[in-house]
Design a protein that fits this description.
Layout: H1 2-13, H2 17-25, H3 32-48, H4 53-56, E1 64-67, H5 74-85, E2 89-93, H6 95-100, H7 109-129, H8 131-146, H9 151-154, H10 189-223, E3 231-237, H11 252-266, E4 271-277, H12 278-293, H13 296-310, E5 312-316, H14 332-346, E6 349-352, E7 355-358, E8 363-368, H15 380-384, E9 388-391, H16 397-405, H17 411-420, E10 425-428, H18 430-446, H19 453-462, H20 464-469, E11 477-480, H21 482-494, H22 496-502
Helix pairs in contact: 2-3, 3-5, 7-13, 8-12, 16-18, 18-19, 18-21
Length: 503
């Protein structure tokens, strides 16, 4: 009953479909139907977690096919959706599997890459958790570098060994007193040795106390940043690893991973000396100390669980493997790729270097323009695994205007911010934005429709001269109006042959 309460709270904390659409609206203009579909699919994942264990396995993810020309927001919707819920996400092109066929990179590599990305993300999160402890340990190692403890003091009870760093052996701590033994006083020998040893220990104890006091003073100066530009020599782990690549039915990259693991277990950990600034040394040492504090077994377990329950694979250019070039028979390469992808989407167990990963509840979002082929050209088994199909609309002039101004990091905001770094205050007027949107729509209609990506080429060409002259301009205020836009772009837009290459 207590477990159910926790799950209920987690569902209540999850974003509702309406909230998901509102968040996507901050970055993507229009395409409400597509946003609505992905929002429902995402919410259903949280709903599945509320079901009984036996029912959870039965509920399959509602995979989606997005149909639309390039530049209308297909990839951006999927990427923003993953960022919104902090889910493992990877984008792959279905066409790359066609190019190399069956002898190269296999389709299972998409799950291996997704797992690798998830492990890296969880590890980064754990690094933040142990950052404070790692920083303290790195500070100790830096102090050992700046002010190493003499070897004579290292074996003292309160001494701190620093075996990883070389200690200057030329330091003179005074000659050890010679002990002369008289045969007549042989009975007093143990007492004399004990007395002499106590004097030596007292002297070493005083030296150790002075060393620790000096060390604490250096620690304060180190924290205050007085040594940031000083160079120190540190011993760091060597990351070089023998590389072996073997062609095998299991795939090139997996064999390579196994050999790397084998060599890392056989060969001893090697270190190399580097002379770097204290600021850089702190980061290197802190990373090494953080790796010691992180429980990698827990990291891998968490990462795999995230992939299996919240992972998202964006399968782009799926239309490129849907068509058949020959009417006399199937295209073996394209149909073969579809049949290879099918088990992963249906749900299978993929072997990775971190362990087995189940794909039964990974969400697959496929996308394609489908200008030449249709979704119905996919093999029936694959079509059945994408129950939701949504068509994205081509962008018009008003959409371009909204893209320029409304998103959280709109293009107009980006370009004005770039000019501000040079001390130039640029004012882009309303009529200039209308003119840019009009020209972008015009070029898309006359040359080729590449959607919102046309705005990037238009804006870059528009500000090209200004970016070049910005450091030398005496006038720090620039007004970009419709006349300025026409003056920079009108001739290029009129000449279709020229705009085909420039815009």
């Amino acid at each position: 009953m207590e477990k159910k309460t926790v799950e209920t709270k987690s569902l209540a904390d999850a974003l509702t479909p309406r909230q998901i659409v509102e968040e996507l609206d901050k970055y993507i203009i229009g395409q409400f139907e597509a946003k609505r579909s992905v929002a429902i699919a995402l919410r259903n994942r949280s709903r599945r977690q509320m079901l009984a264990d036996e029912m959870q396995d039965e509920v399959a993810p509602k995979n989606i096919i997005m149909i639309g020309s390039t530049g209308v927001g297909k990839t951006e919707i999927a990427r923003r959706l993953a960022r919104l819920v902090d889910a493992p996400f990877i984008k792959v092109e279905a066409s790359k599997y066609t190019e190399i066929g069956y002898v190269g990179r296999d389709v299972e590599s998409m799950i291996r890459d997704l797992t690798e990305m998830s492990v890296s993300r969880v590890k980064a999160e754990q690094t933040v958790v142990v950052e404070e402890k790692a920083l303290k340990s790195a500070e100790e190692r830096l102090l050992d570098c700046l002010f190493p403890m003499p070897r004579a003091l290292k074996n003292q009870p309160n001494g701190k060994p620093t075996d990883e760093f070389e200690v200057d052996e030329d330091i003179d701590f005074g000659e050890e007193p010679e002990i002369e033994i008289d045969e007549d006083d042989i009975l007093q020998l143990p007492f004399e040795i004990e007395e002499t040893t106590e004097k030596q220990n007292d002297a070493l104890e005083k030296q150790r106390e002075r060393h620790l006091k000096t060390r604490e003073k250096l620690r304060k100066r180190l924290k205050d940043g007085e040594f940031e530009d000083n160079e120190v020599e540190i011993n760091m782990k060597s990351r070089s690893m023998p590389f072996v690549e073997i062609f095998s039915p299991g795939g090139i990259e997996e064999m390579d991973i196994n050999f790397k693991d084998m060599f890392s277990n056989i060969l001893p950990n090697q270190t190399k000396k580097r002379r770097v600034k204290v600021s850089e040394a702190r980061q290197i040492l802190m990373q090494e100390e953080a790796e010691k504090l992180i429980d990698m077994d827990a990291v891998i377990s968490d990462a795999i669980e995230r992939v299996e329950n919240t992972g998202i694979v964006f399968l782009d250019e799926i239309d490129k493997i849907a068509g058949r070039e020959s009417r006399h028979g199937p295209d073996v390469s394209r149909e073969g790729v579809q049949r290879d992808i099918l088990p992963i989407i249906e749900g299978s167990t993929i072997a990775t270097k971190y362990g087995s990963v189940r794909t039964h509840h990974v969400l697959f979002i496929a996308a394609g323009a489908f200008h030449v082929s249709n979704p119905s050209d996919l093999i029936p088994e694959l079509q059945g695994r994408f129950p939701i199909r949504v068509e994205l609309k081509s962008l018009n002039q008003s959409d371009f205007k909204c893209i320029l101004t409304e998103p959280k990091n709109a293009l107009v905001k980006q370009y004005t911010a770039l000019l501000e770094t040079e001390g130039i205050k640029a004012k882009i007027t309303e009529d200039a934005i209308d003119e840019i949107a009009s020209l972008a729509f015009q070029v898309n209609e006359s040359v080729e429709d590449i959607g919102a990506r046309r705005l990037h080429t238009i804006m870059e060409k528009l500000f090209e001269n200004l970016f070049f002259d910005a450091p030398d301009l005496e006038e720090k205020s620039v007004k970009v109006d419709a006349d300025y836009v026409r003056g920079e772009l009108a001739e290029i837009v009129k000449d279709q042959d020229l705009s085909r290459y420039i815009l």
